[in-house]
Amino acid sequence: MTSRPEAEQETTPSAVSPAQDQTVKGTNTRKVFVRTYGCQMNVYDSERMTDVLAPEGFEATDDMEDADLVILNTCHIREKAAEKVYSELGRIRKVKQERARHGKDMMVGVAGCVAQAEGEEISRRAPIVDLVVGPQSYHQLPGLLSKVRNGNKVVETEFDIDAKFDHLSARAERPVMKRPPAAFLTVQEGCDKFCTFCVVPYTRGAEVSRSVEQIVAEAERMAAAGVREVTLLGQNVNAYHGEAKDGSIWGLGRLLRRLADIDGLDRLRYTTSHPRDMDDDLILAHRDLKSLMPYLHLPVQSGSDKILKSMNRRHTRDEYFRLIDRIREAAPDIALSGDFIVGFPDETDQDFADTMDLIRRVEYGSAFSFKYSQRPGTPGATMDNQVPEDVKSARLAELQALISGQQKAFNASRRGMVCDVLLEKKGRNPGQIVGKSPWLQPVQLDAAEDLIGSIQAVEIVEIGSNSLFGQLIAGQDDHANPGLPRLRSKGDVI
Ligand code: SF4
After folding, report:
1. Can the keyword Iron be found in this entry's annotation (predicted)?
2. Which end of the chain is more exposed for a tag (fewer CB within 10 A), N or C?
3. Residue nearest to atom 3 of ligand 1 (CA)
4. Do 444 and 476 touch, CB atoms closer than 8 A?
């Protein structure tokens, strides 16, 4: 699945192991600035890159002008993604020139899916770029940077995903500290589905799953470092098929059951899933595991059988409805999310009406929606009957109004409930803390800062446009207790 496009963010990962920390303090520290675009997998990869660089004496900075190394971790999902990277590189060129005036050097790297797709073209069009590195090669960063320091331009975009995962495993052997209460953990990469609108199979390669042992080891380290909630990541995460020690192959449901046994890991999530890969074991995990949060991002993209076929989604709308019924039977309070593309080639008014009908029938808690845009190299880009922009815009507005109404209704239905909230960080206003509800909504409340990292019972008292507002329930301790009901009615607090 396309990982959901999110706002661009600058990442200053705090994950530096004690061993790494000593290395940094004991040497001439250099600064790395990472700007992360796109999905959670890129956020995770940015953390991994800074982990790999820490023993080399690099520490993260959020000030590009202060950086000896700038890395753009790019995303290819958005329209004109490559052009946006080139214009950002134009801005970086000025920063690099300014640093040079003060006798300071700056290396510039481009990572992520645009790096994978564009390769050498990047250094040709943007000579300030020293290093182009694809998502499967981040473990090689120290060696690649050493080549750059020797005056070479380096392009490394080989698909050697097993080596990357082996490296991540080695990393998991080291202790970690200062993890935020909620963190990502990649369990699977790549995709074999070849939806006709999507570049992922070309930029991230075939599906590969990490071994059960590697994932459990990393999750245990994260829990020991204070992580309370782990979101398992994969381009097609529910296609996970990792090998266990005894040689058996585990699906995602079985993996989640194993991770649910780890002490201190109180919340589990996963994203992003394909409807074809929601098997019974995974669905029943939503019924059986209290730590598996009642939220599921399950993109369908279209409600028209004709368009689903043309997108190569490999399921029909009726199969999707039946799947939703089974999921809701297992987990009645689940919040469903999705992705929708409007204006795929040959989408008629009737096809669009079928999508709107599907949305009305499913009732989503939230969803992401986009106008179709042609991605070079994908079959959709050359299909006949491309839909005019004005038609796409009108359909998108109509669809988003419907989704927005459903989201408001879902959020409003939480008013007066008491739920467990993982308190994650300080809010904008003094005394305010922001946490996350079981259904992935941000919850704002007044609470002491030292409660960050704990799970508290919170009454939802107000509903905002994007957040819920809550109040701590007095006298309730940290609800790490997995036996605690995850949703109760007001007045029913134990
Ligand atoms: S090809 Fe389809 S299933 Fe695979 S990542 Fe892209 S949208 Fe998801």
Report:
1. yes
2. C
3. 1
4. no
Domain count along the chain: 4
User: Is residue 378 one of the residues assigned to a domain?
Assistant: yes
Mutate to test the pocket of ligand 1, among 236, 237, 273, 312 (most ligand atoms within 8 A of CB): 236
Distance 310 CA to ligand 1 centre (A): 14
271 and 286, same domain (yes or no): yes
377 three-state secondary structure = coil
- State the distance from the centre of ligand 1 to the C-alpha of 288, rounded, in angstroms: 28
SS3 206: coil
With beta carbons less than 8 A apart as the criterion, state whether 167 and 51 touch.
no
Q: Buried b vs exposed e over 1-34: b needs ≥16 C-beta within 10 Å?
A: bbbbebebeebbbebbbeebeebbeeeeebbbbb
CATH (domain of 444): 2.40.50.140
50: Cβ below 6 Å to ligand 1? no
CA distance 167 to 147: 20
Give the burial class of 341: count Cβ atoms within 10 A of its Cβ; 0-12 exposed, 13-18 middle, 19 or more buried.
Answer: buried
* Ligand 1 atom nearest 191 alpha carbon: 4
Q: Is residue 484 part of a domain?
A: yes
Find out whether the peptide bond into 272 is cis, omega within 30 degrees of 0.
Answer: yes
Q: Is the CB of 235 under 6 A from ligand 1?
A: yes
Closest residue by CA, ligand 1 atom 2: 195
Q: Are residues 330 and 464 in the same domain?
A: no
Query: Could you tell which of 1, 203, 314 is best to mutate to test the pocket of ligand 1, judged by most ligand atoms within 8 Å of the CB?
Result: 1
Let me know if residue 494 belongs to a domain.
no
pTM score, whole prediction? 0.79
Q: Is 61's C-beta closer than 6 angstroms to any atom of ligand 1?
A: no
Listed residues 413, 438, 455: the one ending a domain: 413
The answer to whether 419 is a known ligand-binding residue is no
Residue 23's φ and ψ, nearest 5 degrees, are -60, -45
Q: Domain limits at 319?
A: 294-413
